[in-house]
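Worked Example 4.2. Consider the chain below.
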Amino acid sequence: MPMKNKNPLPQDGAYLEIWKIEQDQGRTRWTVTTFFLSISFAVLGLSFDIKDGQAGLSVLGLSLPDAQRVIGCFIYWFGYALFLQFNRYTNFLRSRLREMEEQKLVSFSFQSDARRFMYSKLRAAFSASWLLFYFGLLYTVIVIILILFVS
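Applying the procedure from the previous section yields the following structure tokens:
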């Protein structure tokens, strides 16, 4: 546990409570995100399982498999939007923890140390938010290619 000094400070308890909330928030963020991303990939996978009698079906001018692919893509982006919303709250909590550290109200430096370690310019480009965004773009491009060239 990184400590600035060995003597506990009065705000240490409050800091640890906020830190626990931030940890729970992170778990919830990833659970919700993983759920929606998994559903989107399941829907995409099902779009390749065409049974006799389904080939001629269409939804809003799209074949059934193409409609499933678009729905899967929308579910992905919905999951990503939820991830960003949860991430905003996590960042808010982390900023409060860093403020407490910078004002020397606590004997901890978890968030300051983590920020220095995790967020160089190169590492920031490969944060979870950006990686999910890049993958979502790739997913969308693949869905568009499938709709235009495979159907």
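The first helix runs from residue 12 to 46. The two ends are 56 Å apart (CA to CA). Compare this with Example 4.1 before moving on.
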